[in-house]
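Ticket 4471: requesting a sanity check on a complex prediction with guanosine-5'-monophosphate. Repro inputs:
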Amino acid sequence: MQLLKDKILNEGKVLPGNILKVDGFLNQQLDIRLLNEIGKEFAFLFKDLGVNKILTVESSGIALACVASQNMGNVPVVFGKKHKTLKRGEDFYAAKIFSFTHNREYEVTINKEFISKDDVILIVDDFLANGEAVNGLMDIIKQADAKLVGVGIAVEKGFQGGGDKLREQGLRVESLAIVENMDNGKITFR
Ligand code: 5GP
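Returned structure tokens:
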């Protein structure tokens, strides 16, 4: 998606450790015009698949999942929680995810009430790097015996290989911008 690529080139910052900082439009301040276009694009890419639920992880995936839903018949958005709370009860699915940006493992949980075997699910997230977050959500979808039909990502860091591993497994992964290289702060796309 050219609009997203232009935003990354104009406003993205490459930080040490292969981190692309996009706080100005995706991760802290949100560019709603861009988000709306992303939502439309996900809806176009994943139309006619019978998606009845969009799954993501808090926090940055939520806005993207919501704009996708608005263009996909307002299907419910469910997000995995990263923080343990007393309210979560006992009846939840859980998966371990290693966070690339925080360099630690965390547990993502989803109340069993919100995913069932009848669900046809689209995963949406802001970034795809090593694929850990998507793998964690796939684990939960498997536990719930639900069906996964695709993964929609705003920015994939292609050089980390997570997206291609998922595609090799036969999963439909659509990324709106795939960064192939960002050595020396210079960003190039696939
Ligand atoms: P993965 O689980 O695929 O290794 O990494 C994806 C997750 O880590 C995303 O949910 C995102 O929050 C975070 N992430 C990974 N790489 C980057 C990056 O370069 N920039 C930002 N802003 N987030 C990233």
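Notes from triage: The mean pLDDT is 95. Leaving this open until the requester confirms.
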